[in-house]
Amino acid sequence: MNYYALQVKTRSEERYIKLLRAMYPEILFPVYFPKRRIDIRRQGLVSQSTTAVFPGYIFVEVDEEEDIRRHQWAFRRIDGFFRFLKSNQNITPMSGRDLEVALHFIKSVGPVAGRSRVYFDENSRIAVVDGPLMGLEGKIIKVDKRKRRAKIKLDLYNDSFSIDLGFEVIGVLGRRE
């Protein structure tokens, strides 16, 4: 399997996928748009918000490299398309760390990343038991215990950005609450 990243208009990712399916029903490739769910507290009220993990990016899974080249103009004709990554002239499958990070959210986490379950040790270091943060401990740059969020730094091609993922504290290492 090969995975390709497409840059599309930010906050129009789902619209792009719907247009792709409507305009080109013969394209049956799986298309992924990983999302995350976090709690937002405003004026004492908590609500859930669902946003993109990779704003402005969608991922396409194809069997053969020639499949993406055969259908590249269909992808490019849809309103909101910007480019294939690395470039429209050099359409290459994802590899290395880029592929690992994308697959973590595509395959391991599922369509919407929820809360992770974590412990804190006596030195206030976070230990992830399960959830979307599992395997990304080295990418955590900030932990906000009050908001129950961990800020992680993700790299995709030459872009680097940070996102918040929610967590649920189950206790302190050595003793469960």
| Helix proportion range | 10-25%
- Please count the beta strands (DSSP E, at least 2 residues each): 13
CATH class of the largest domain: Alpha Beta
CA radius of gyration: 18 Å
What is the averaged pLDDT score?
A: 90
Secondary structural class: alpha+beta
Task: Provide a count of the helices.
Answer: 4
N- and C-termini, Cα separation: 43 Å
Strand content: 35-45%
The domain count comes to: 2
CATH architecture classification name of the largest domain:
2-Layer Sandwich
Runs in which pLDDT lies below 50 for 5 or more consecutive residues are none
Largest sheet: 6 strands, mixed
According to CATH, the homologous superfamily of the largest domain is: NusG, N-terminal domain
CATH topology of the largest domain: Alpha-Beta Plaits
Q: In sequence order, what are the helices and strands, one letter per element?
A: EHEEEEHHEHEEEEEEE
Global shape = elongated
Polypeptide structure, described:
The chain has 4 helices and 13 strands. The chain has 177 residues and is an alpha+beta fold. The chain folds into 2 domains: 1-114, NusG, N-terminal domain (Alpha-Beta Plaits, 2-Layer Sandwich), CATH 3.30.70.940; 115-177, no CATH class. Strands 8, 9, 10, 11, 12 and 13 form a 6-stranded mixed β-sheet that branches. The longest helix has 14 residues, at 96-109.
